[in-house]
Amino acid sequence: MTSVLFVCQSNAVCSPIAEALLKHLAADRFETMSAGLQPTVIDTHTLAALTQLGVNTEGLNSKGLDSIEERYFDIVISLCEQAEEAARAIPANQFMAWHFEDTLCCSQPQAAKVVHEIFERIKLLVLLQDRKAKPLW
Q1: Taking a C-beta distance cutoff of 8 angstroms, is the pair 134, 69 a contact?
Q2: Continuous H helices in the chain
Q3: Where are the domains of the chain?
Q4: Start and end of every Phosphotyrosine protein phosphatase I domain (predicted)?
Q5: Which listed residue, 18, 73, 84, 103, has the most CB atoms within 10 A of its CB?
Q6: Whether pLDDT at 110 is above 90
C-alpha cells in the first residue's frame, strides 16, 4: 500500500480535501494522511463541497505535523508554497509540489472549485501510481 501525506499551511482546506478525495477514490491502494504547519478547524464550506460530491468526511480533522513524527511516507505532497520547505523535510521516497492558494473558502462555489481542481490532480496521481504497479505492456 502506498502511503501519501498532504501538507499545507492550515490543514483546513487543501490538504483535508486531498486526503478525503484520495481515500474516496483508492482507499484500498493508498494510506492517506494530511497535516498542516499551523492547523485550524476544517473550513465548513470545504466539508459541504466534499459531502455534496458524496465523499465521506467522517473522521476528517485538522492535524499538525507533530501527528506524523517518526513516520516515513512513499509520497509527500505540498499543497501551498508556505508548506513546501517543511514538506520537503519529511522522510519520503518522492516529493511533489501542487501549489494552491491555502485560504479559507468564503463561499460554497469557491469551495467546490478548489475541490474540483484538487480532484483532477488526485485522479492523475492514482492513474500514475496504478501504472507503476501494473504497466500497460
Answers
A1: no
A2: 14-26, 44-52, 81-88, 108-133
A3: 2-133
A4: 2-128
A5: 18
A6: no
